[in-house]
Amino acid sequence: MNDNANKPIQSHCNNCGGVRNHFLLHKEEVLDKEEVDEYSSFEYWDCYEVLKCCGCDKISMRHRSSFSEDRDEFGQEIISTTYYPPSMSRRKPRWMDDISFSLNFGIDNIKEILDEVYICLQNDAPRLAVMGVRSLVEHIILEKIEDKGTFYENVTEFARAGFISDIQKDIIKRALDAGSAVTHRGFKPDKWLVADVVDIAESLVEMLYVNPSRSRRIEKKTPPRKK
Q: How far lies 73's CA from each of 42, 78, 139, 187, 212, in Å?
């Protein structure tokens, strides 16, 4: 292990969810120079670091780079930072790793679509994330009811069948409309709207697929009433 590993540095950790202390396991710096003429030149700097989170032990790589001509308004050098895997703006809910959810027969596609939504968030693709939520909600609804032709008719029938309440029906319709606006109206949602839409999708999945498994576990562990 590199001697620098004993000196923690600050870096982003996806698993912990934010900036945390990291051990520096390895570091490589590359400095390149491009001659413009006999009086001037450009310099490129790249720094590759292999890091280990002090809290959860996850390994990641950080790439920092700069170009001598890139300066901010105060003349300071601008350093770009990229993480591998990319830094996540949102952590997956803990129930995504619940074995009873992961192995629940018949919901493989639902879990895959939800995973793809998080990949979109991780790679700063808000439009694709919202469109993915629309696809996810439609997939959930059509797994439970017969297709009625349109999104909104399907949501209404979904509520009529007792899977969601009237209040939840209106909430889901608004989330679906955001996806429709992205697809048909050139809408680019901000991060707050995306977070709200994903919250609604997570809530729906948790209610229909995670909580039933939890309730069965509770039932098994709860002693019956004495006759």
A: 19, 10, 49, 32, 56
Q: Which two tokens stand for residue 8?
A: 């923690």
Token pair, residue 164, equals 């969601």
Q: Give, as one character, the DSSP assignment of residue 4.
A: G
Q: Is the dihedral of CA 125, 128, 132, 138 positive or negative?
A: positive
DSSP state of 146: -
| Contact predicate 88/14, CB 8 Å | yes
CA-wise closest residue to 49 among 16, 97, 101, 8: 8
DSSP per-residue letters across 188-222: ---HHHHHHHHHHHHHHHIIIIIHHHHHHHHHHHS
DSSP conformation class of 74? T
Residue at 190: amino acid letter: D
Q: What is the pLDDT of residues 23-71, one digit of tens each?
A: 999 999 999 888 777 777 788 999 999 999 998 998 999 999 998 878 8
Q: Identify the sign of the CA torsion 216, 222, 223, 227.
A: negative
Selection from 120, 134, 132, 113 nearest residue 180 by Cα: 134
Is the C-alpha dihedral spanning 77, 82, 83, 86 positive or negative? positive
**10 Å Cβ neighbour count for 141?**
23
11: three-class secondary structure by DSSP: strand
Question: Which strand (E) or helix (H) includes residue 135?
Answer: helix 126-144
